[in-house]
Every structure is written in structure tokens, then in C-alpha cells.
Amino acid sequence: MQKAFIFSTAIRIPFPETLVEPYGENLYVVQNPPSKPLSQEEMDGVYGLPYMRNYHPSYEESKGVPAIREIKFSLISNRGCFGACSFCALTFHQGRIIQARSHGSLLEEARLLTEEPDFKGYIHDVGGPTADFRFPACEKQLTKGACPNKQCLFPEPCKNLKADHSDYIALLRKLRAVPKVKKVFIRSGIRFDYVLADSGRTFLRELCQYHVSGQLKVAPEHVADKVLNRMGKPKNSVYRQFVREYKEMNGRLGKEQYLVPYLMSSHPGSSMKEAVELAEYLRDLGYMPEQVQDFYPTPSTISTCMYYTGYDCRTMEQVYVPVNPHEKAMQRALIQYRNPKNYELVAEALKIAGRTDLIGYDKKCLIRPRGKAQGASERKSGRKGTQENDTKHSQKEGVNHMKIAVVTGASSGMGREMIVQLWEHFNGFDEMWIIARRKERLDELEKMVGVTLRKLPLDLTKDRDRRILERTLEMEKPEVKFLVNSAGFGKIGRVDALNLCDETDMVRLNCEALCAVTRMVLPYMSRNGRVIQFASSAAFLPQPGFAIYAATKAFVLSYSRALNQELKSRNIYVTAVCPGPVKTEFFDIAETTGEIPLYKQLVMANPKRVVAKAIRDSVAGRDISVYGLTMKAFRLLCKALPHRWLLAVMEKCG
């Protein structure tokens, strides 16, 4: 105990000189002090060196380094961080005094990026440890250095803090004006409490208007103030204020953009109670992180001192520390409670926390009970609408087929979102059959839903792969409750400029594959089954520069509405979903050959809302689903006015 106390006291002592600690006769541990901050001229010199801007050629044999794609077109604008989170070692690596590059240095590098052959007009990031820090926290740091026993932002912003984004705003505006640059994003950490400490909201407005690609990643790390205090992070109320202001600003700008929170499990101070509190927050948010950072000790940090000693070295208070690997696994599993692999860990954690009220079928529950007798009775009583009726019908007839949903295009975009929302809204599926070419993306979906997934990595444009689906259906003879055809792609560009293979593949996937899958699945669909076919608002009007894609979607719309009429006698309903532009990976592919017109960029919809409306319209038996007033008005215009008039207007707006 005394040793731990001494260690906790020692870590608070500043060390301006090199420390040498002997171990035996010939062994020493040498700890050097942090390096002095670089001047702006030195920073510019370091980053102005003639780097190759790529991985080392020795990696070519192993097909390169995939991670290079995330950073190749990013700009490092600063070093250091005065945020000084308890768990972060950057304070020691780069110091608490911000060192920033000049505008000229960054603009020159941006111009170099635009000359790269694979540059597509997007600068992915402009930042560093904390993107919006551009100068020291206060004037005092310039002459006396960082305060040894005070923090700039914790527990509240220091009265001497200079919270000013004007230099960063000016830099971003200059970067947006660089020729060949279409958009400049910010993907490294934005310190949200620093944004709120700024007396104005100009930066928040420009951030939302120009620098967010649908989602902004921020790092609240936790929601329990007890844990946040140990982390050196602001109170949860500060994060909630930022969430409100971010939402309001996007509302004023007419944008639908969301926050993605970084979260950490089993940090010192987090008991099972706080871990459950975090899981409940995620439940209410409707979000499950694909990745979770589980706390691990990092040399020299305050959090590591807490982990080792059980004391908070700042206050010398005792701290609860989850050190048992099994307990850490439970806390981590709670953050991803929807992942079926985590079920046993989550159930155990809820029992330990005395929160078995969160095991059940209520909307507030995290997981459902397991056990055949209990599960069957509760599922039967908990089902609604068509599922309850179909269950009674099956029992009466002695049918016991596996009930499934089939979703194509499941690896991204609308298909991925459809899987999550079908699972959230309907609890009668025994399995979901998910189909896409990229198996690794299908594997990721296991973390997002609490139902068995049968992953079918198939290319539906190929007869061989379609036969695999057909044989699987014949062997299993499932009862298909939902069929969702969301597989498809488009390419922007004139017909005479596009690659011929791309043109024919669009027809094969968007039309031929959709028809083939629908025809294969129909014999296995039960009464009150639903078919959701993803068409597009492009189906309402010919689209010069997008001609083949629009034509294929016009086919899907016509085919789906006719099919809906044919299947009414079987009580099977077909809905054609016709959204406008949606913020998904679709346009990352589409824009490789051309640029999306401005008028489409202005009406981008959120995929969650489009999918939610599609499901509602499908359940209601509607044959078409159009999201948003803008697209509904567009549909009416296409019916009311000659197409040649509308095409002339679109050409002028393009």
C-alpha cells in the first residue's frame, strides 16, 4: 500500500532533467524529458522534406499497406495537445504546447496532393492529435510553459484559455479554394468542449456546412460523470450540449449529419454499474459501435497510475479498477450488446449489476431471454401484426419452417441499414440471409444485430453464384418473410465515355440479378410476405449523364408495381423504394467517372430515415415509397410537366 502511495505521489513531480534509475550493477532505466516544442519554421521544415507519400516499396510483395488509403490525402497541421486526457500518452510524446505549421506550408502540400494520379478531389483530414488546436492554450505558455499542476480544459476550461478558431477557419477556407480540391474533411479529433468554449459559433457552422462527410467522430469516451472525472474529460452535460448545438446547426443548414462517439470500456473508476449505464445510453441512441477501445495501461499516463496503484494521483482518492480480464470482457461486451457472440457475457454482467430488468422483450431491454420454453411463449405473446397471425396459421397447419429475411447488397449502404432496422423492428426471424460480394463486410454485421446471420458472399451477376442461392433455398425450404433487393450500382458520365463493362454490369446487377433473385425466392414466401425493391427517383425522369442507371431503375419501378398487382392474390406485397440522392458509399463509386450535379448534392438524404420509411410503407402495403417532400414534389413534376422541359432545367442547374 505504501509503495502504491509513493508511486502515485511521484508521478505528479515534473521532471525537467533526464532521470536515471539503476537496476542491479549494469542495468539502468533512462527517462528523457519531453522534447522542446518546435517553432513554426522548424515544423514547416520537417513537413516540407521530399517524402515519397507512400508505403515502402518492400511492401509491394504483400500487396501494399491498405491503411495508406486513410491517410494518404490527409494533412498534419499541428503537434501537441493541451487537452491532457488521463489515458492519453500524446501529452508526453508531443507535449502540451501546440506547435502548428504555417498556412503556406499546408497549402503547398495540398497542391502536391492534387498532383497525385489517384487524387479524386477530397482532402480527408486537416488536423493532428486535436484538429482544432492551432496555437498555445494561453499567452502564459509562451513564456512559462504549461502549468505543472493545472489542466487547460479539465474540470472546466481555464479562465486564461484562449478559445479561438479564427486561424483554423482561415486555413480551411484557403484549402477549399485550392484548384482541383472538391471538399476538405476533418476526421481527426475535434475537441467539443473547446468548440463550446469559443464565444462564437462560426467554426461550428463552417464545420457542419463544409467539413463533415455525413458523420462527425467525437470522443466523449463515456457518459457516467464518475468515470469521466477519472478520464480527465468534461462532464456528460457538456457533450449533450454539443450534441444539441450540432443538431441545431445542421437543422439551420438543412443538413442531416450525425455524430459517431468514440467510447472506452473498463477505464479506472468504471464499475459494472457505469458500464450498464453506457450500454443504456447506446440503446437509447440506437447505435452500436463496430469497434470498442478497451482501456489498457500506457506508460507515463495518469490512468495507468490509477490502474497500477488503485489511487487517483491528483487527489489521492482510492479508485475502483477493473483489472480482472473476465470483468473487462464483460464491460466491453456491454457496449456491443447486440452482437450475438457477446450474449453470455452481457447476461452475466447484467446479473452482477443487479439489472436483470434489462433481459426481456421490452423496448428498454438489452437482450432477450434464452431457453426454449420461455422463449417460445414470450416470443408468441410479443409478436405483432402479420407475424402474430402467421405464427398462429403455421401452428394450425403443423408447419415449422425456418422464418427468414433475405437481403441483397448487404455489405454497405441501404442494404446494411435495412438489416439493422429489420432486426430492430421484427423479432420473428430465425435467420437473416445476407448477400454481397465482400465477405469481410458481411462479417462486420454480426456485431450489429442479435440474430443468426447466414452470410452468402455471392456475385449475383454470375449464373454460378445465383445457382448457389437457388440450391440453398431448395435444401432449407425456409419461410421467407422479407425479401429486400438493394444490390445495385451506378456510374456518372456520358454513355459514350463510360467503360462498356460498367454499362453492361449496371444492367446485369440492377435488372437481371434483381429479377432472378425475386423469381427464386417467391415460391418460399408466406402469406403477408413483403418484397422491398430499391429503385430510385431517377426512375421518374431520363437522366443525361446518368442514363443507364436511370433506365435500369425505371425498369425496377415498373417491374415492381406490376409484380405487386400479380401477387395480391397471395397476400404478398411489393414496394418499390424511390429515394433521391442518399449519403452512402454509392456516390463514392458513381463519382469515379464523373461528378454529382450540385442540385443533387443539395438534397442528400439520410439512409436511416429512407430505410425507416421504406419499412413503414412496406408494412402498410404501399407499392411505392418516396422519402422527403423534395422527392415527392419531383415525382409530381415528372407526372405533370413534359420531360423535355424538365431536362432543359436540369441541364442549366447541373
What does this structure look like?
The protein has 654 residues and is of the alpha/beta class. Helix content is 43%, strand content 13%. The protein contains 27 helices and 20 strands. The strands form seven sheets. The chain has a seven-stranded parallel sheet with strand order 16-15-14-17-18-19-20, with helices on both faces. It is globular. Mean pLDDT is 86; it is low at 372-400 and 589-593.
Q: Supply the number of helical segments.
A: 27
Largest sheet: 7 strands, parallel
- How many β-strand runs? 20
Kindly provide the radius of gyration, computed on alpha-carbon positions and rounded to a whole number of angstroms: 28 Å
Question: What is the average per-residue confidence, as pLDDT, rounded to a whole number?
Answer: 86
* First-last Cα distance: 72 Å
The side-by-side strand order for the widest beta sheet comes to: 16-15-14-17-18-19-20
Query: How does the overall form come out from the CA principal axes?
Result: globular
The low-confidence runs, each spanning 5 or more residues with pLDDT under 50, are 372-400, 589-593
Structural class: alpha/beta
